[in-house]
Request: fold
Amino acid sequence: MNGTIPGPTIVLDEGDIVEFTIVNKGTVTHGASIHAAYTQTSKYLGKIEAGKSKSLLFKVSYPGVYMYHCAPGGHAIPMHVIYGQYGMIVVKPKKKYKLETILNKPPDVEIFLNQHEFYSNGKDAIESKPLYTAFNGKLFRYVENPIKAKPGDYVRIYYLNVGPNQTATFHIVGIIWDFAYWQGNPDMVYPGGQSVLAGPTDSWVVEFRVPPDEGAYLMLNHAVGPTDRGAIGLLVCDDSAQTPVTVIGDGPKYSQEELNTLKSKVTRVISPFEPGSPDVDPVAYYGPETGEVTVKIIGNSFYPKSIVIAEGTKVKWVNEDVFSYMEGEFAGIHNVTSYEGIAEPFSSPLLAHTESFTFTFNKEGDYKYMCTPHPYMKGTVSVKDMGGRSTAGPSKIGLGFLITLLFLVTFQLVVTVYNRRKKAE
Amino acid sequence: MNGTIPGPTIVLDEGDIVEFTIVNKGTVTHGASIHAAYTQTSKYLGKIEAGKSKSLLFKVSYPGVYMYHCAPGGHAIPMHVIYGQYGMIVVKPKKKYKLETILNKPPDVEIFLNQHEFYSNGKDAIESKPLYTAFNGKLFRYVENPIKAKPGDYVRIYYLNVGPNQTATFHIVGIIWDFAYWQGNPDMVYPGGQSVLAGPTDSWVVEFRVPPDEGAYLMLNHAVGPTDRGAIGLLVCDDSAQTPVTVIGDGPKYSQEELNTLKSKVTRVISPFEPGSPDVDPVAYYGPETGEVTVKIIGNSFYPKSIVIAEGTKVKWVNEDVFSYMEGEFAGIHNVTSYEGIAEPFSSPLLAHTESFTFTFNKEGDYKYMCTPHPYMKGTVSVKDMGGRSTAGPSKIGLGFLITLLFLVTFQLVVTVYNRRKKAE
Amino acid sequence: MNGTIPGPTIVLDEGDIVEFTIVNKGTVTHGASIHAAYTQTSKYLGKIEAGKSKSLLFKVSYPGVYMYHCAPGGHAIPMHVIYGQYGMIVVKPKKKYKLETILNKPPDVEIFLNQHEFYSNGKDAIESKPLYTAFNGKLFRYVENPIKAKPGDYVRIYYLNVGPNQTATFHIVGIIWDFAYWQGNPDMVYPGGQSVLAGPTDSWVVEFRVPPDEGAYLMLNHAVGPTDRGAIGLLVCDDSAQTPVTVIGDGPKYSQEELNTLKSKVTRVISPFEPGSPDVDPVAYYGPETGEVTVKIIGNSFYPKSIVIAEGTKVKWVNEDVFSYMEGEFAGIHNVTSYEGIAEPFSSPLLAHTESFTFTFNKEGDYKYMCTPHPYMKGTVSVKDMGGRSTAGPSKIGLGFLITLLFLVTFQLVVTVYNRRKKAE
Reply:
């Protein structure tokens, strides 16, 4: 959203009247679910066609930390969430948080912290197996560029577990909270505590004072397996820190020049929707003993994305996407159609859940295919004469470490706050 | 239970004296764990042999939303829970919920909502990888038949995350709760909030008023990967809705005629215990290079359930079920015995955890085998002469979309509430 | 720690001044994170080289149930936690827990209960797929040796979900809590409830009275799949029980003689770092059709650990460990170097995340290799002439059921409590 993952962090005051306008600059239908809004968001923002825009006017009456995300309807809701269309809205309470009352001053350090997951294929996305995790859009972002605070500083963190799949326990090494506030509600105060537990879309405000000892305080999800994939940051206590400071939750934004530099250093290409580098989307080899190979269509991608088979092998594509109600981006309806290397062209009808298409490959060659309703979904089949020795793997070579999320930069969010001020644009 | 998944929803009043009678109409031992009962359930209801019945008399002193489930002892407890033997008990508090006090009226819409998971094999069941998820027993049940409410209606949801494995964040698009009550306890009030977090057997009562805007409010687990497998429903705000209304949590019950119609439309057969359709339980092919194939015995099923191997290949069955204490349905003790296609019959001794049985298949043919203590557990081995080309996959063809849970319709629950009224039977 | 998993349970009183001294008796760098300490633990205890020791003096001002664990910095933190270096610290509150006030007596039964996970390889560790789970260090420990209480006894459980990955709902069959206290804080009281939800490092104190009925009350995580792997125990109500009693949370400690007896009965060898029994770390076979085999380096282990390939096959090792910041035990930097069976020796440079090393095996033979910076990481490659029939699997044979955690017995914890008493040593 607005070209970043997560999208812009939106900060409102309890009681504000706010107008959200979504401008769909992409090629597929988008929409929005705004958790801070107690109203029919799907009616007003549910399905915005490419090139169109829609608005919702509402009052934010409940203080807290909320998620917003794309919601074009049906199966496209989880898909657009999984693949990066989300962000944080904070409705600051009229009532002061308890530590602010006690200390009688605003926080010295305010951090808006989105924790979220990246997936390299639809099967992993459905099965909650992230390839990477992050705070505010970038692996190890605050290890590379630590957030700095002075000894004794009052810190408030607006923590949102975006998910979209995993439950997390947020912890900072060396810190016991003064207070944690469930979903950021100042009336739901938890005293003390080493951690807070949050499922996807759950949120907390945590508050504490920085201990007198200079050095690094590690912020992380204490579920250490997923954490090790990137959702780690440093809060560094440093006498020379410049506070007050605010760290917003928007993902990093790159200039075209920075993007070019990044691309020149790429060691791995990741896309949920088409074959990335072979170490991310490994080619699956099937020997001549294999009567039939099953390729799953799941989470708007093929699994495995690339296969090598012997002449004469049957390949069966099965639609494992279940949510075929409501038409959001055509719901979970898919097909397979060859578009390159067409020694033997093939094309299936539209497939609903459990429906399948089988094709027997009798001619050597490299085939590329796609899904017509979702043309970003792509896969390959290499057919070998395995009488002799298989000669070679596919020629695709990984190019640094770049995540390509195709849905990414395709819509713009305009937020207008009436009677008060304009917060984000 | 009583032929549905979930079993009957039981609603009691705080202070009721209640008698549970379990009648085991099945062929294996059953039992019950009643989370609303502060007493020795395992002693009185722990192990009920086929054809027998047992009763427990107790007083419900703690208000809340509880799970009950089959509990025949030992390894059979998780197995019977995983495969569908559960339901919800609500103990309504004497004290009014806060919103009922504020609005000074009972809810217009009361929804008893079980969220639960379906597994297609024991390995996935143990590893928390559901094939499907559901509200009240059926994928997309309330998308197909939405729950209807009028604008401004007071809604109360008794939400139970049955699991049996995944933690979930329950959310309704467009709604911020007025109040959430932890485990349905009126003394544990959470104000506001976009979601509630629940692990397996955790529960909440959530209350809110329907916004004035007509249209659809999507109810879901915000862990979107698993949600996309079926646990999605609609609460539709509609001026013409007939309220007050109560939606019970029982799974759908089908007449024999409806079942016949369903069966005629089946596109996929799923059973955790024997090979289903090949797209659910894909055949695993092993080339002649394979020295040894390992088949796991896990979650009361074989994995993979169907294998194709070359003549001369060794197959090793390893018992991965760990819980061999207590004798519930013979605990996690298994064996393998061929019963069809017996060019070479084979039979193992009983295997405890980590114990294995190895057999070398030297003769072409199709073999079927089972576990003697759990005769519903079945698997197949196809032995091919792979000097030449493997000729064909297995002949089994998927037939709709029918979930066969073998344990399902095998016991009856009779609940008697003394001094007051009879709620469920 | 001190030779057990979990390490010693440390019980302090709110307000104590305490000194932790870590003596590293191992061969790699260790450290400590002490969640009960509101201070810079990483500065004082963060990186303790082999043979060295370090101390931290601090005051425990916040009552509750906390985790402590090894924390040598960077990628080594999650690794050392995953592989067993953790324990529980309880800071007992000055204020009495509510049930103690009501009953006006201390608990009759005090249980310190660590719930934790064991992993057999790094990939499963990162992906949250435990092979086993346990209470206090041993599968089914309290099924084999139940904890005993008299009818009516007042029970307090200090429950810590160590994780390190899975969220759990702690439940006791037949029990509704009188009170649960979030993270053991006496000011955060939850009345009633069938369960408590805890992510990794989350904790609760739960209190209840044992019902009058003699018999067994099953303690478990109600996420039944993982529970079935070992985290189950019994609290047995028995008129003849000797109370008051305290059950500490330390893992079992074996004498050399007991260890020898255990080893003589081993049926399975498990090590996250090198090939264990083939039923735990199954050999992966690749036919001659396979152009390239990918071996992942993940969670400080190789995956698959043992492969069989045809002459001429390329093997590509890819470093999937991401956390290469901070130098804790050299961070997630790895290589591969052959050390045995060196018909064709091979050795890679150091590999950072996404970097890979490819080697084509042209000569038949059995190769063993390791990671130079982490010499406990080991793998094997068997190269076969697959023109003919693959002759045999690897010769390694499983030997009762022993978990080898290499990091285990390598450091000693000394805790000194000033002004009061010495609690653990």
User: Anything to note?
Assistant: DSSP finds seven helices and 30 strands in chain C. Residues 414 and 425 of chain C are 5 Å apart (CA to CA). Chain C has three domains: 10-247, 284-384, 398-425. Chain C touches chain A through 67 residues (CB under 8 Å).
